[in-house]
Amino acid sequence: MARVLLFGRLADLAGWRERDIPAVSLADLRGRIATEDPALFDALQAPAVRTAVDQELVSLDVALGPDSEVAFLPPMSGG
Where does residue 79 rank: exposed (0-12), middle (13-18), buried (19+ CB within 10 A)? Predict the structure, then answer.
């Protein structure tokens, strides 16, 4: 089970910020999201959206442990 965190416009689009989703890998998790919420899946595919697993940025598929935390991070602005 992965703890999935969404931030910014991704959370607004999905209607939730934190959720537990059963998955064994990042690719599996993305597949489950694609099935449940195609609009969110499309938003996650944007090149500027970053993915962190257990607070480390990743760019490829990785295995998820039973207590993994996956965060999807949209582009941020600030000043």
Answer: exposed
pLDDT one-digit tens code per residue, 16-68: 999 999 999 999 999 999 999 999 999 999 999 999 999 999 989 999 998 99
Q: What is the pTM of this model?
A: 0.92
Cα 35 to Cα 67: distance, rounded to the nearest angstrom:
22
Would you state the structure tokens that stand for residue 59, as one six-digit string?
């760019």
Burial of 44 (0-12, 13-18, 19+ CB in 10 A): buried
Among 37, 29, 30, smallest CA distance to 12 is for: 37
